[in-house]
Amino acid sequence: MNLHELTIHEAQDLLKTKEISAVELTRAVLDRIQAVEPLVDAYITVTEALALKQAAAADKIIGQNTARALTGIPIAVKDLICTRGVATTCASKILENFIPPYDATVMKKLTAAGAVMTGKVNMDEFAMGSSTENSGIKITKNPWDRSRVPGGSSGGSAAAVAANMCLGALGSDTGGSIRQPASHCGVVGVKPTYGRVSRFGLVAFASSLDQIGPLARDVTDAAILMQTISGHDAKDSTSIDTPVPDFRAALTGEVKGLKIGIPEQYHALEGISPDVLSSVKKAMDFYRDAGAELVDVSLPHSQYAVAAYYLIAPAEASSNLARYDGVKYGARDTGAASLIDMYKNTRSAGFGPEVQRRILLGTYALSAGYYDAYYKKASQIRTLIKKDFETAFSACDILLSPVTPTPAFNIGENIDDPLTMYLSDIFTLSANLAGIPGLSVPCGFSNEGLPVGLQLMGNYFEETTILNAAYAFEQATDFHCRRPQL
Amino acid sequence: MTLTKEDVLHVATLARLNIDESQIDTFASQLGKILEYVETLDRIDTSDVTPTFHAVDKSNAFREDSPTDHLDRESALGNAPATEDGFFIVPKVIES
Prior knowledge:
Chain A is 38% helix and 13% strand.
């Protein structure tokens, strides 16, 4: 038995019966990281000493039979979630030496649940990207084919879960940044409803779109992680005070009578790879055979989602990233004579090209004379996109679509063509604009052996419905059991 | 939509970024292409549509005005590039 290959729920059972210890499990994962990190480049910081200390504490707790939800479970954390005393870089040169003096709420919750943190994982700088190539630190490789991207921006989280370099991970999703890398790496990824999980301590990219969520090896593990991180937080004024359901208990595998909406615009789109289409069609067949009802629905404004998103997200980013000015934290250019030059030199040296591009785009969209034409216009389109979903959910329970038009692309393939890169987010970013939950579950492999994901989106706070539908599919297939050979 | 060199430099000033001379054309062309793409939004008449700035409806989140634990000064200043006597230090702002 290779301990690093366990799912969270398998490990929980073995820890509980004391067949394995938390230190053994953590040691196995740390050894795995050491062995394959040079091939995958998933981690920015490995917190070995901390992990072993937490694991030893976990064993003590297990010995006293007071284990909590994640006692002794090794988890990796995307490097834009603040971790007290552990560098949080956002994969940016500007925050290379930033050590947060406090924990994000999700970190407090993970720690309280007994989790072991293995380290901080790579991402596109400030979560801006779909490939993790925009990291200012390193380029993460897709464990299934190391000439390919792992997706992004939570590419380190997805690659680490796929390559058994942790048992589960936290990521963040602003336009698909959990679901798309999960799809490309063959793991489960969940973007919760906006407001379900506290954003306190999540370094802000686009505040009205960002949401933290889990990446895991199967749906049960994703449900377990959702349980720990969900809930209202007074420190995040956008978090919603609504009851948190028992996510794992909702996994019955029963989908009889479930109404699954098939958005006609998504499936009519040009440029979807045949491998993706056939895998998604097979998933539709599964649900039909299992007694679900497939209904055609329309999301008439979906063709405008990319354009609206790439005005709203950069506009919010340009405002959020104004704080990196070389004064309160982060790098500072020391050669400048004036304050303005200090700002400019610090920011230009600290931000990578994609971050600068988005700051420029967002600043332009908010600047005098352009606000109405760009930012306001996009926000009005956002209303129409939201209404499309509300109408669709009056006729169905969940929506089914691909996650991405193609499996993982080659490293370097789209890096000089931002617009093409943006267009690959077509299926995922509407959920962020509307605020609804969505997930990716493995649903097949391309001819080249690359994972393909299925996206299920649900109504507000209906994570249980999509998790259960994904669970039903997972029970009938073995795609989630396959792991890449490294 | 074409962005001129001056447009790029103006926005860069607003955003407090220096743009290297050699990069201006690249940024102008990439941003121009993106802005051209977003012009597809003009096909929809939104004159009667209320904008959505937040995905989930929620009014103000109030709390009791009572003291809670906060970062101490040392922690708050701990990541600053330059501090003195408990303050952040910045380059001179006022011309002598």
